[in-house]
Design goal:
This is Lipoprotein. This protein is an alpha+beta fold. It has two helices and five strands. It is about 25% helix and about 45% strand. Strands 1, 2, 3, 4 and 5 form a five-stranded antiparallel β-sheet that branches. A hairpin with a 5-residue loop joins strand 3 and strand 4. The longest helix is centred in the last third of the chain and has 21 residues.
Length: about 100
């Protein structure tokens, strides 16, 4: 499923926007004494398909976000909280379905 850009940019073929993202998402636990926190890194690379079928990326349009304390920040960041509320149960469902 392509991840769509909300503000696509154009280059060489101005009529064809970079309207999708290649997504790199890293989630990692951060253990501090008896507490577990989470860290997240997100990198979005815009891409599009040219008329000849070539996949064209736009490295100049890369967007990145990193959060070192996801659980703490989610308390005041409703967008992050909503993403975590969707992603973490999906990961749990995958783990359960695989029997891990």
């Amino acid at each position: 499923m392509p991840i769509l850009a909300t503000s696509p940019s154009t280059v060489v073929h101005p009529e064809i926007p970079y309207d999708k993202y290649l997504v790199e998402l890293t989630l990692a636990p951060v253990v501090i004494a008896n507490n577990i926190e989470g860290a997240m890194s997100l990198r979005l690379t815009p891409y599009r398909y040219l008329p000849d079928g070539t996949l064209d990326t736009n490295p100049a349009g890369i967007r990145q976000e990193g959060v070192g304390a996801c659980y703490a920040q989610a308390e005041t960041d409703p967008v992050l909280a909503a993403a975590m509320a969707a992603i973490l149960p999906a990961i749990q469902a995958f783990i359960t379905a695989r029997g891990y």
